[in-house]
Amino acid sequence: MNTTLKVAFAAAAATLLAFLPANATAANESAAVKTTVTPIAGKLFKEKRVPVQASVEATVTVPGGQTTILPLKQTRFRYDTDMKFVPDNRVTPVCGDDRINSQSDLANGVSFMVDLCPKSVVGTGTALIYLASLTGGPLEDPQMVLFNAGRNSRGEPAFKIYAYSKGTGVGVLMHGSLAADGEMTVDVPVLAFDSAVGNFKFEVPGRGMEVEDAREPDGFRTIKGLDPGYVRARCSTGQWTTNATLSLGKRDPSTGEEDGPTSVVDAPAFTDSCVGEKGRPRLVVTRKAFPKVLFAGRRAKFKVKVTNKGTASARKVALVARGGVQASRQIGKIPPGATRVIPINPRVKAPRGTKAKVTLVVKGAPRAGRTVKFSSRIRVR
Length: 381
Fold this sequence. Notes:
With 381 residues, the chain is mainly β. The protein has helices spanning 3-18, 110-116; strands spanning 30-39, 50-61, 72-78, 83-85, 121-130, 138-139, 143-151, 157-165, 170-177, 183-187, 196-204, 209-212, 220-223, 231-233, 239-248, 263-273, 283-289, 293-294, 302-308, 314-323, 325-334, 339-344, 347-348, 355-363, 372-380. Strand 7 and strand 8 form a beta hairpin.
């Protein structure tokens, strides 16, 4: 951002502040939250989570005629647990602190920061801010990029958020993670001119955001999330519910220290209806281990690895050994996408000196797809 433009915005903020009493503070803020979730391809299911386009939008408002609005200090979302973040570091490598951190040159803009972690982008966002916390100074140019940060020490999916406003010439870095209970907390640093956030919206993976880039022929490039499977969702109850709590308050722009009480505002719960198909289970044996030799009258060791590649849980799953050996083992339920390694130790019934035909059968009910059956002939000693 050129110096002339920076000075102009600083002068505008100072002019607005000149008409405000020194001890004036905002009050009566209210908040709203809205989410959208749509499958990227195909249907939603009651049990199996599928890749989705997801967005979340939060808005802070004050009554008409109020000239000030408190700056945003923290956002805390409580998403429906039907939605999960599933970072895949093979698709979007972790953007580590060695590439982007609080000491990076955050004033260089979105295109520059994306170049530091070009393969780690998982989503984008936009915002509206009020310069100097004055409702008469809205600025709608802030843009945001979400980077995959892998998982935190608790094993939760983590991400970085870079936000930049060309109008203020300032960029900030934020961090967040999504807990197993659906809670996501992001601390917001002090913004330029102690500005307040009126609205922000994130989209993951997003459909593309135009950002300035002087190297491009038309001066712009498109940024979007690179992992279509980063957000996955199911529809288990016919609706999703999202809650949000926003913490607002003044801070010293130079030190970040608290400069007054914190106002905690709860947004009304947002409910979005959905339709989840029942789906069907499909059991697949991906690996099996048979002994090379059986010993008559003794127990043998077999092992199979079973994956449910369907869209619903396989229930009452059992492994049965037949033929020269006899045994059965109840496994229970295998959710969609889950894998179970199942050992079974049947007693050998076949006599010595023979080659016994051993058949292992994996079956489930209801509607577990075809019964998986495989056989082998093994020498008995």
